[in-house]
Each structure stands twice: as C-alpha cells, then as structure tokens.
Amino acid sequence: MFNKLIDDGFIKHLGLSNFTISMLEDAQQACDVPIFAHQVEHHPYLPQANMLSYLKEQQIQMISYSPLARGNIIKDSVLQSIGEQHHTSPAQISLAWVMQKGAIPIPKASSVDHLRDNFEFTEVVLSIDEIQQIDAISYRERYVYPPVVSPKKWKSGPFS
Ligand SMILES: NC(=O)c1ccc[n+]([C@@H]2O[C@H](COP(=O)([O-])OP(=O)(O)OC[C@H]3O[C@@H](n4cnc5c(N)ncnc54)[C@H](OP(=O)(O)O)[C@@H]3O)[C@@H](O)[C@H]2O)c1
Fold this sequence. Notes:
The chain has 160 residues and is α/β, with parallel strands linked by helices. The chain contains eight helices and four strands, in the order H-E-H-E-H-E-H-H-E-H-H-H. Helix content is 42%, strand content 12%. Strands 1-2-3-4 form a four-stranded parallel beta sheet. It binds NADP nicotinamide-adenine-dinucleotide phosphate. NADP nicotinamide-adenine-dinucleotide phosphate binds next to helix 6.
C-alpha cells in the first residue's frame, strides 16, 4: 500500500510518530516499505535511550519533538552553566545534545530572537564530558501525552 504512494509520487518516505517499540515492530511487519523516521518527545528530561538505540539498530531516523522541553530546559542549571562556557544559550545546548545523540531536533519558536538562536545551534560542539554532565541530570518529565496511544501506557512508561 505504501509502496504505491511512493511509486505514484505522493510520498518520498514513510514516517511515524509516538509509537512504542512494540508498536514499531508491528508496523515494520505490516508495512511494505522501510520506516524512514520516527518522531517522539526527546530532551534532557526525557532521554529516550531505549528508543534511540532501537531506532539506530533499525536504521530509522529519530526526530525529536519538544527538544526544549516546551521551553522549560532554559531554566536548567546544568545547561545554563555549559551554555555560559560556550557563550551561548541553554536552548542551543539542548539542541546540540539532541543532535549529538544522533537525533534531529525540531524546536518551535514564535519570536525572531528564538528562531535565530535555534538556527545557530549547529555551531555548538559539546565535549564528551559535557554530554555526560547532561546525561547525569536525573530530573524526568514528559510534557506531551499523545492522544493516539493510551495515555495510561505513556504515563506509566519508562522515562529512559
Ligand atoms: N508528533 C507529535 O505528537 C508532536 C507533539 C508536540 C510537538 N510536536 C512538534 O514539535 C515542535 C516543537 O515542540 P514544542 O512546541 O512542543 O516544544 P519546544 O520546541 O521544546 O518548546 C517551545 C517553547 O520553547 C520556547 N523557545 C523556543 N526557542 C527558544 C530559545 N532559543 N530560547 C528560549 N526559549 C525558546 C518557545 O517560545 P516562543 O514561542 O516564545 O519562541 C516555546 O515556548 C512543534 O512545532 C510540533 O510540530 C510534535
């Protein structure tokens, strides 16, 4: 079914969002084309380690939504401190951390200043030590509870 959409030029690739790993496994069985990308909430407060490693193994690109933890990440003292050392914002540090994990962040910004700030994050290269400092943040929070899957399942799900 999806290969016809590709052959007819309606889509180039197939992407999914908010699937659990077991749902992705079912989807891979059911789909007649490879899954190209999967979009999930991902930021230092929701590191998604299991999902990230599964997607890497399956060669599916992870797309990170809410990569600024809906704006909450800018108040984080670890990211503020690393940002000061790089003469940049905690938002850029969060986006650089996501990218260096192998995912692609898609921040939302409604002001020109934030847009400009977010476009510049690709110039930030975090050291292994800085990545480890961010990995060591123990606070966990999920900001989005997608309606397409059972909210109960997400709420009780792992924060890895
Ligand atoms: N697939 C899904 O189910 C799903 C679910 C949720 C979101 N998404 C996608 O993910 C995208 C982004 O996620 P999101 O809006 O939830 O959260 P987000 O990008 O983590 O955070 C957006 C918030 O951060 C602020 N912000 C942006 N850049 C900043 C900067 N440089 N410094 C300080 N604050 C900054 C924004 O403020 P201003 O607006 O004032 O600039 C806004 O309040 C959305 O566009 C949406 O398409 C997908």
